[in-house]
Amino acid sequence: MASKHSVVLSIVVVFIICTVSWTVSTAQEDTYHFANEDVYGNLRRPSVVYPHNVHEEALADEDCMTCHHDQDENTGELIYTEGEEQGCKECHGDRKEGDKPALREAFHGSCTICHRNMIKKKEQKSGPTTCGGCHQIK
Ligand code: HEC
Ligand code: HEC
Ligand code: HEC
Ligand code: HEC
Fold first, then answer.
1. Structure confidence at residue 37 (pLDDT)
2. Which domains does the chain have, with CATH numbers?
3. Res 6: pLDDT
4. Ligand 3 centroid vs 13 CA: distance in angstroms?
5. Residues with pLDDT less than 70, the chain
6. What is the mean pLDDT of the chain?
7. What value does the CA radius of gyration of the chain take, rounded to a whole number of Å?
8. Which residues contact 80 (CB under 8 A, 6 or more apart)?
């Protein structure tokens, strides 16, 4: 009897672990806290909070491709593949490589440029454009 129970229990435990890791590996977090010291060596500015959920709502008309891309192996072009979104530092490192900007420039190129463009286009909502607006968390 006891062994039958432990078999059932093991199956349940394995099932729970699989479900949890599946959820963790496919979903984005509501809020990111960027402090990629492993890439920069040390941080020269306070770290940055990025509310993914606020952006998803505010940018509901835009594609995920606005921020996420992958590189097509054959053409070298940037493409978007649903379900293949990755952390930016998986590809962008501490230095520029050819056309691929370093991580800091990749973030600024995405975050700051969009906020600035939206202000230029007089959109109702935009995000911070000053250093301290994003680099807040000490
Ligand atoms: C305004 C920019 C922006 C938009 C639009 C956006 N994302 Fe993201 N997303 C990010 C950033 C920035 C991260 C964090 C990347 C990092 O950790 O380096 C992220 C992280 C993720 C991750 C986790 C990746 C990982 O493995 O760490 C997933 C999944 C994801 N986004 C899916 C989506 C989907 C699906 C959409 C479209 C519905 C979307 N995102 C739209 C900016 C965006
Ligand atoms: C799978 C690898 C990969 C991932 C993941 C990736 N990038 Fe890139 N990114 C590249 C490559 C390669 C280029 C250069 C492409 C070119 O211009 O030929 C690039 C270019 C860029 C550029 C400059 C060109 C442009 O589109 O404006 C920005 C900005 C950028 N990435 C931001 C990001 C951000 C932000 C993230 C995370 C949300 C991210 N990247 C994730 C590979 C990647
Ligand atoms: C494609 C355009 C776009 C990109 C890319 C983008 N943002 Fe934003 N951001 C917005 C808009 C629009 C808002 C206003 C949202 C609102 O008020 O509902 C915003 C708001 C914000 C806010 C204020 C949030 C709040 O709760 O008031 C912060 C902080 C922010 N963005 C940080 C970032 C960071 C960090 C990145 C890069 C990782 C980034 N944004 C990339 C468009 C963008
Ligand atoms: C729209 C948001 C935003 C604005 C505005 C912004 N940054 Fe950043 N910055 C980021 C994000 C996101 C990162 C990536 C942080 C990480 O990877 O840990 C970053 C990274 C950096 C880094 C590398 C990490 C470090 O702390 O050493 C430096 C330096 C930096 N920014 C300086 C600045 C300066 C100077 C300004 C003003 C001229 C500025 N940033 C404005 C979002 C922003």
1. 95
2. 29-134 (3.90.10.10)
3. 64
4. 39
5. 1-26, 138
6. 86
7. 20
8. 63, 64, 65, 68, 69, 70
The owner of tokens 């530092």 is 89
Instruction: Give CA–CA dist 83/126, Å, rounded.
Output: 27
Closest ligand 3 atom to the C-alpha of 62? 1
Residue nearest to atom 22 of ligand 2 (CA): 106
Report residues whose beta carbon is within 6 angstroms of any ligand 1 atom: 28, 32, 50, 52, 55-56, 59, 62, 64, 66-68, 85-89
Determine the distance separating the centroid of ligand 4 and the alpha carbon of 21, expressed in angstroms: 31
What distances in angstroms separate CA 63 from CA 4, 29, 55, one per listed residue? 50, 18, 11
Closest C-alpha to ligand 4, atom 31:
104
Q: How far is CA 26 from the centre of its chain?
A: 12
What distances in angstroms separate CA 37 from CA 3, 45, 93, 107, one per listed residue?
Answer: 48, 11, 11, 14
Q: Is the pTM of this model over 0.85?
A: yes
Centroid of ligand 4 to alpha carbon of 43 (angstroms) = 9
What is the rounded CA–CA span in Å between residue 44 and residue 40? 9
Structure tokens at 135: 């680099």
